[in-house]
Specification:
The complex is a heterotrimer of chains A (about 525), B (about 160) and C (about 350). With about 525 residues, chain A is of the alpha+beta class. Chain A contains 20 helices and twelve strands. Chain C has a domain at about 35-220 and about 240-280: Cytochrome Bc1 Complex, Chain C, CATH 1.20.810. Chain C contains 15 helices and two strands. The chains are: A alpha+beta (about 525), B alpha+beta (about 160), C mainly alpha (about 350). Chains in contact: A-B, A-C, B-C.
């Protein structure tokens, strides 16, 4: 080996050495000096709480330690502190605390979310206490001194009024050496999203932001909403699970950035699928490249109400004090600055009462504008023709339900009331009332919800099929039967009414198919199955 | 290093060997130079010593202008948080002179240390006593105010981890 | 010496006059022609060990900037180096791999020397110096690993001290001296630290100096085979730049290999040493495997005695070799066979131990 060759070899080897050292430098720069696990900070004020409660309920404290609150020293006192004199406060180990942490307490730091949430439909969830649903639970299923169905069922999702037990003088009952106020066991525990709190606020943040870890990945998950948004009367989670959105989510859960700290923006932080939160609450990228901020007003992007017997579009009226009302599109829009009488349900003496409050209109958001807000989320993945056509399809189904079944059925029920067959104060006396109830409240909603969130099976088989089947085979006969029970004359009247109804072309199938339709059907089956 | 070797080479190949020498020299210089640089960087100690933790310290509107609030840090030492017209500042109440605890004197508009009569103005600058002689400022604790929620955070020293 | 009178009056800044060496002699010694057989790459193994020793010195000194030799802080200081210090993982990994390579190169060097019969008269002394260096190197490895103070460090040290204790006659004293007490603890760590960064380097320097001196004075043995023509061209080539460049090839190649090993297999950190918990598998470093396997096959005392016997034979090998050839009329093939058998035994025991427990 000559010297020259040797020198070249040294040069070549040192080149490789240099390369390897560059890789070393690269490795070094990539070394994430491990963010050592940040401990929870227990400030002086919370030390006492943690010491005792770590023994009493260790998992609860451990969950708090896991939370982001604990990482910055926000602990027990910051949320549970109360003022002397508040109805649910008592002096516990030297400090005034309250078991109940209401949205007003959370608003100390999360004021924006509180404002949005308080005017939303979620905060109003507890107001069904005066509805037929409640009647079913308390009266139909309940005993005079035992309304456990409402307590364990409806109220756990919808929330209830927090009530206190009273002593013989009518004051709040207090117990133990600290004088802890005794909450009516029927109303606590309750984390219903529309809980009516003693401090006047409505709702409960931890219905969705489960305590005490308050994990964002939990609140962003569809299963979270599915606790309440499920079942025969509003199967949103089942529909989501059926839909492509749900499928995409479950297949790509690890790409959803569910754990992301801070904002969580569709079209920026994740793209694989929408969750409930994505469309109804969370932030998304607009076509202009801006971030549409999240809003805890879950109705902000809703254009139809699919709840009532007959669905209508919703216009949002926002008043000066932040109070919000939804007007069906059939109701005339007020002018900005106009003063209107609004109906507000409040708790007085632990009872839900309706108050009429005069308010000035500050802002109007039309159903088209609300729909555009929703479309903004859709447009992240779908183009505008797709989105607009979807809404045409959706609108079509709601209209179909409205026009073919809901309106005629309601008209029939109204007539029965007018004729005295049905009494307004006996809502579930006759079978027709049950059938009608389920027609709009169960399968009727399932059909509409199914169409709203692309769940075809819910739209048809659990939805319109059952609506039509029950309408023809159960409802209409039951109308006649109810009338008949009252009097034979009324029975005949309604028999004729139904007959007349069924003469409309959309009901002609009842008499049989036309010759062409029958032939087409026969030949189709023959072609398919005969060999 | 000889650029033109007198070793077992013919003079006709002197240019080739020159290139070879240069290549070798450059290679060695760069590669061992890189090693030396890494060695030097190794010897510069990393700045891991003092970690800071963000701690919640209430809301901005809970601090009246001109008022002082006390706060205990993770080592049990006091921090004085003062809201002024211009903003919100936090100082360690440990006097930089000999470690006594200072307190705010609203009548004199100073942070006063009773041990040896040291005093600091509202910005923590030494105004009187031994701290003035030694030009020792009150130790400032970084304050962060979240604009959207008005939450106040203090960045306190965290020496709890090993 | 010579020219002092001249410079007294002349003055000046000539450097070579400031240092009163015989520069001519030095230049001559430095550029002495190198025998051609040293062109064979086998002969670079000794230089390899020397180069790796220098790497150990450099990386070792760097590590002492951050290492803390007390049971309370040792592990954490090593963790600090590995996780926090800039290129700490790299320097530590280089140090670890260089030690492993050094021992491998050392064994290969010993084998080269053995099979070239370079230990024969008049080079017996150098062989023993070399063996001293082997002992020093192994001791370096042992003390160095114990300094990390992981579980295996602590318990490995415990086992080693127990082995030392089993030495006949001086055992108990030896064990006590090694541990600095009845148990492995703070004293042990300090002792090992002093040995590792102070005493052993000093001994190593002296022995290396002696080793190189003897080589330079006695020359390197040629690799001659029986069938070689009697006067094979005993040519020479230039030390500088030819031989130096060859050495540079070896040096850069070794550096490259070390960096790659550091990148692909960086040094890790096991569990912190816990005197209360004995790990299910205690193992020394791989270069002690053959010893460990011997211990498992026999007993503490027997294995120590056997090690001493084998070690003794190896240390005094030039004289054993002389005895075998002169008195027992053994020829070279027998010597080679003994070497091969010894190597295979060590290898087998090492591999066996690496697979078990």
């Amino acid at each position: 080996m000559t010297l020259v060759v040797k020198r070249y070899i040294v040069a070549a080897l040192s080149f490789f050495l240099l390369l390897s050292l560059l890789i070393v430098a690269f490795q070094e720069s990539n070394m994430k000096r491990k963010e050592t696990h940040q401990d929870a900070i227990v400030t002086g004020a919370n030390e006492g709480c943690v010491t005792c409660h770590m023994k009493d309920s260790p998992a609860l404290v451990m969950e708090w330690e896991f939370s982001k609150h604990a990482k910055v020293g926000i602990g027990c006192i910051e949320c549970h502190v109360a003022e002397k004199g508040e109805v649910d406060a008592w002096k516990h180990e030297g400090t005034y605390v309250s078991v109940l942490v209401t949205p007003k307490d959370c608003a100390r730091c999360h004021s924006k979310e509180y404002e949005e949430f308080s005017r939303s439909h979620h905060a109003k969830a507890g107001e069904i206490l005066a509805s037929l649903d409640n009647v079913l639970a308390e009266k139909v299923a309940g005993l005079p001194d035992n309304n456990a169905d409402a307590v364990n069922g409806c109220w756990q999702c919808h929330g209830t009024i927090i009530k206190f037990e009273k002593d013989k003088d009518g004051d709040i009952l207090r117990t133990g050496k600290e004088g802890k106020p005794v909450i009516d066991a029927d109303t606590w525990p309750n984390s219903g999203i529309g809980r009516l709190n003693p401090d006047g606020s409505k709702g409960s943040c931890h219905a969705c932001h489960s305590r005490h870890a308050f994990q964002s990945k939990l609140s962003r998950s569809p299963e979270n909403c599915g606790k309440c948004h499920m079942g025969p009367d509003h199967p949103q989670i089942e529909i989501y699970n059926e839909s492509k959105h749900g499928i995409a989510f479950y297949a790509n859960r690890d790409r959803m950035a569910m754990d992301k700290k801070g904002s969580w923006v569709l079209g920026k932080d994740y793209s694989a699928a929408p969750t409930c939160a994505s469309c109804h609450i969370s932030a998304y990228m607009t076509p202009q490249g801006e971030v549409k901020a999240a809003s805890h007003d879950v109705g902000e992007r809703i254009s139809w109400t699919l709840r009532p017997i007959i669905s209508s579009k919703l216009n949002m009226i926002i008043y000066e004090d932040g109070f919000k009302e939804d007007f069906p599109h059939t109701r005339a829009l007020p002018k900005i600055g106009e003063t209107l009488d609004t109906n507000e349900k409040v708790v007085e003496n632990e009872e839900l009462v309706n108050k009429v409050v005069s308010r000035k209109v500050e802002k109007i958001v039309t159903w088209e504008e609300r729909r555009d807000l929703m479309k903004g989320a859709c447009l992240n993945c779908h183009n505008d023709t797709y989105v607009d056509n979807f809404y045409k399809q959706f609108d079509g189904l709601v209209t179909l339900y409205n026009e073919k079944f809901a309106r005629p059925a309601k008209a029939m029920m109204d007539d029965l009331k007018k004729d005295g067959v049905l009494k307004a104060d006996a809502p579930f006396e006759k079978e027709v009332q049950w059938i009608f109830w389920e027609l709009w409240h169960h399968e009727g909603r399932r059909a509409r919800h199914g169409a709203s969130m692309m769940g075809p099976d819910y739209t048809h088989w659990h939805g319109m099929y059952e609506v039509s089947k029950h309408y023809y085979t159960e409802f209409l006969p039951a109308v006649i039967e109810a009338a008949e029970e009252t009097s034979h004359a009324l029975g005949n009247k309604y028999r004729r009414k139904v007959e007349e109804l069924l003469t409309a072309p959309e009901h002609a199938w009842q008499k049989g198919l036309s010759k062409e339709e029958a032939d087409a059907l026969k030949s189709a089956y023959k072609k398919r199955y005969e060999k | 290093m000889e650029k033109v070797p007198k070793s077992s080479q013919e003079d006709g190949q002197s240019r080739r060997s020159f290139v070879a020498s240069v290549a070798m020299g450059a290679g060695l210089l760069l590669s061992y130079g890189a090693l030396a640089i890494k060695g030097l960087l190794f010897l510069i100690p990393p700045k891991t010593s003092v970690k800071r933790r963000k701690i919640y310290a209430g809301k901005l509107d809970e601090y009246a202008i001109g008022s002082i609030q006390k706060f205990i840090d993770l080592e049990g030492k006091e921090i004085l948080v003062k809201r002024s017209e211009t903003g919100i500042d936090a100082f360690s109440a440990v006097c930089p002179h000999l470690g006594c605890r200072v307190h705010w004197q609203p009548e004199n508009d100073v942070f006063f240390c009773p041990c040896h009569g040291g005093a600091f103005d509202a910005a923590g600058r030494p105004a009187a006593g031994p701290p003035k002689d030694g030009n020792q400022h009150l130790f400032k604790v970084p304050v962060e105010v979240d604009k959207s929620s008005g939450i106040v955070y203090l960045q306190v020293k965290d020496k709890r981890e090993a | 010496m010579g020219n002092s009178k001249d410079t007294e009056t002349k003055g000046g800044l000539k450097f070579s006059e400031m240092l009163p060496f015989d520069w001519e002699l030095l230049r001559h010694a430095g550029s002495e022609p190198v025998p051609n057989h040293l062109k064979k790459w086998w002969f670079c193994l000794g230089g390899t060990v020397a180069y790796l020793f220098i790497v150990q010195l450099a990386t070792g000194v760097a590590l002492t900037f951050y290492y803390i030799p007390s049971p309370e802080f040792a592990y954490d200081s090593v963790a600090n180096i590995t996780h926090n210090v800039r290129f700490g993982w790299f320097v530590r990994s280089l140090h670890k791999w260089s030690s492993n390579f050094m021992i491998v190169a050392l064994f290969l060097h010993v084998m080269r020397v053995f099979f070239t019969q370079a230990y024969r008269h008049p080079r017996q002394l150098n062989w023993m110096v070399g063996f001293g260096l082997l002992g020093v190197t192994l001791f370096f490895g042992f003390t160095g690993y114990s300094l990390v103070y992981e579980q295996l460090s602590y318990w490995g040290a415990t086992v080693a001290a127990n082995l030392a204790e089993a030495t006949p006659l001086v055992g108990e004293l030896l064990g006590f001296f090694l541990r600095g007490g009845p148990e492995v603890g703070a004293n042990t760590l300090t002792r090992f630290y002093v040995l590792h960064i102070g005493f052993l380097p000093m001994v190593a320097f002296m022995l290396i100096g002696l080793h190189i001196l003897l080589i330079r004075l006695q020359g390197v043995t040629e690799l001659r085979f029986e069938n070689d023509p009697p006067e094979k061209a005993a040519g020479h080539f230039k030390f500088f730049p030819d031989h130096v460049t060859s050495e540079m090839i070896v040096g850069v190649l070794l550096m490259y290999l070390l960096v790659m090993m550091a990148l692909i297999f960086p040094a890790e950190l096991g569990e912190r040493a816990n005197p209360a918990v004995t790990p299910p598998h205690i193992k020394p470093e791989w270069y002690f495997y053959f010893n460990y396997r011997l211990l498992k096959l026999t007993s503490l005392k027997v294995s120590v005695v056997l090690t001493m016997v084998f070690g003794g034979i190896a240390f005094f090998w030039p004289f054993v070799d002389e005895f075998l050839r002169r008195r027992l009329k053994a020829n070279d093939s027998v010597i080679v066979l003994i070497g091969v058998v010894a190597i295979l035994m060590i290898f087998t025991f090492t591999v066996w131990e690496s697979f078990s427990g």
